[in-house]
Specification:
single chain, mainly alpha, 4 helices, rod-shaped
Amino acid sequence: MQIIRTIIWVLILVGVLLFSFFNWSDVEVTIWDNLVLETKVPALVIISFLLGFLPTWLYARGVIWSLNRKIRSLEIAAKASSVSAAARESDREEAARQDESQTETEPDAEPEPETQAEVEAQDETDARLTADDSATPVDGDDAIDTREKSATK
């Protein structure tokens, strides 16, 4: 693509040089009634070309610059989100590996037998009354009574 652009610019330069060679004559340009500019035809053509080309070229460069800024910001955001997603995934994998290694190193421990005090404390919490059950016993009350009877024997 760069070679095509270079060829086009060389052709434009050759055209301007040929035009300048065959039209090298003085021209009077009247700007105001009392202001007259004497110049050569090629200078007038080159200035006219630049007056038309330069604003268009500057506008195109500005659009390209702003689009490149947007693309860069989107790429940075995409990279940050992919990095954070990858970090979350690696954290999950690491946690899974640690869980597996802990379960492999620890033998299955047998649960400790409950003491009589813990059983009674649990039964007491089951036997508490609620606003709906103000006078009716909870199912756990019967269990407490049977345990108390067996304990007294």
